[in-house]
Amino acid sequence: MEEKSQVNLKEQRDRRKRINRMKKGLISFIGIWMFVCMLLCVILMVKVSSLEKKVALLVSDETITKQVDEKVAGGNEGLSYNSTEAMKSTDEQVVMNIAGVINDTENLAGENDELKVYLTFDDGPSDNTAAILDTLAKYNVKATFFVVGKQDDESKAMYQRIVNEGHTLGMHSYSHKYSVIYDSLDAFETDFNEIQSYLYDVTGRECRLYRFPGGSSNQVSNTDMTEFIKFLNEEQVTYFDWNVSSGDATSQAYTADELVNNVMSDVVKYKTSVVLMHDSNTKGTTVEALGPMIEALQGMGAQILPIDDNTTLVQHVKAENVE
User: 302 and 115 in contact (C-beta within 8 Å)?
Assistant: First the structure.
């Protein structure tokens, strides 16, 4: 009897141990499950935030210039640029903060002022570069090309042709991937050195002119843009933004005539106009618009020039204000 009692007691103890192990296992499982859920929630929040940015970019299809012009048209005193416009680049749209942009009354054109216009092309070389260069040659006009890094032979030939034909060659990053170049100062410096060295190897010219993808006022960068501006200042590299846009960067499908009208309606407002256009495979309408645009600019007596050391700076964020 006593022996049977001991057996029962042992079975009860074993059962309690099994129950305890099951409880611990269940608690561990719940703990791990809760941790995984929390981790997934964090990842989901990051994804949602990223998607919100992209949705905001896709919703708006007007350029930064149009918003600025509305402000300028309403008067130059007490301008307050606190809204955000969306601007679409060839790879993606970039949110632009236009606070304080083009609040430069000294550049506003008077009745008898001579107008200087700088045609600039971002994102090339592309299948359209040769046609753009052909049109510029036809009208004996020089322009500025802010290029990205491409290794194919045709692109190399286009870099060289830009230089040989007297146009200004500028840098527009090597990769043109915002998430890469704007991830950190080190990432930006690496990309900058890559495009500068590459263009020197191809053309024998050291580029000292830069345009930030999305402009110096973009709000997509993971790093404060002033860090990159300080770097360019230290490298004695000049960057240019723009104060006139053709509209070829937006999601709206402008016709060639509309692109010309967009530019012509704006260049009359400034003594120095830096016109934003794009040189990528999808910008065939830009090629169509270029000839009529040049004819219209020449017809109004504007000087069409390539950016050089004497060009009045047009910067969304003034380099001289960044220490």
Answer: yes
From the candidates 167, 176, 278, 316, give the one annotated as an active-site residue.
278
Residue 102's Cβ-count burial label (10 Å; 0-12, 13-18, 19+) is: buried
Lowest-confidence region among 64-73, 146-155, 226-235, 246-255: 64-73
Range 296-305 average pLDDT: 97
Q: Which CATH superfamily is domain 64-321 in?
A: Glycoside hydrolase/deacetylase (3.20.20.370)
- Buried/exposed 47-86: b ≥16 CB within 10 Å, e otherwise: eeeeeebeeebeebbbbbbebbbebbeeeeeeeebeeebb
pLDDT at site 52: 53
Q: Which among 122, 191, 248, 266 is annotated as catalytic?
A: 122
Give me the residue label for tokens 């012009």. Answer: 69
Provide the pLDDT for residue 168.
98
Instruction: Tell me the per-residue pLDDT of 256-271, one tens digit each, with 9 for 90 and over.
Output: 999 999 999 999 999 9
Task: List all residues 6 or more positions away from 120 whose beta carbon is below 8 Å from its beta carbon.
Answer: 143, 144, 145, 146, 170, 211, 240, 242, 274, 275, 276, 277, 307
- In this structure, of 43-52, 142-151, 166-175, the range with the lowest mean pLDDT score is 43-52
pTM: 0.71
Give the integer Cα–Cα distance in Å for 126 and 24.
Answer: 63
Measured distance CA(49)–CA(183) in Å, rounded: 17
Residue 278 among the catalytic residues: yes
Indicate the domain borders of the chain.
Answer: 1-59, 64-321
Torsion of CA 212, 213, 214, 218, to 10 degrees: -60
279 is catalytic: no
Separation between Cα atoms, residue 68 and residue 259, nearest integer Å: 18
